[in-house]
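Can't paste images in this forum, so I'm doing it all in text. The chain is below; anyone willing to post the predicted structure tokens underneath?
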Amino acid sequence: MSTPPPAKRTKATVNLLDTTGTTIEVRVGALSTVLHVHQKLICNKSTFFTNLVTAGSKIVVLPDTEVDIFRTYLHWLYTGNVDNLSTEMGSSLELAKTYVLGEKMIDPDFQDAVMTKLILSSNYECPCVDAVGTIYLGTPKGSPARLLMVDFYVHRAHGGWNKLDELPRLVSAEFAGDLIAALVTKRPFPPGPWPWVPHVNSYRVKPAGIKSESSG
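Text version of the structure:
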């Protein structure tokens, strides 16, 4: 009995990273730290860089971007992941800055990867007020990241939260408006009678020394 011929091996198709061609010089941060990235690679992901290269730019200057934040973006471009980003307590500001860089780069895939990290970080705490401010300063109205910040505070903040005194530092009137609207829409009515019914004097202007009904 003859032995059947061995089955043909099919070669798996793998999209290998293309690191050929021209590189772009990027000067990052206040000290103009010089980094290089392959033009084809970054223009395939970032509309921001595509527009600059199309306009003839050979050097890109990002003075307001932190070097480590931009290095995270380069890591994403070359590896396809943001595993270097922490989701532990205290990481929300770094994650917010990284998301805002994605907004600047106009790279929605990168933003969504960072968004996943932001959501994982909520296992520990609400984003710090500086993280909320960073998101609101660096994203447009209707941004999914703005919605996430509001939902974090609607569903996680409470009266016993030891960071309530930080809320006045939220300088963004837009966040305050979004948060109030979300609280009115999503939070349930408090139980019990309306306080202005049994304690009407609490809302009156009265002479000093006259106790309100709520004070006993």
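The first helix runs from residue 39 to 45. The domain at 23-189 is CATH 3.30.710.10 (Potassium Channel Kv1.1; Chain A).
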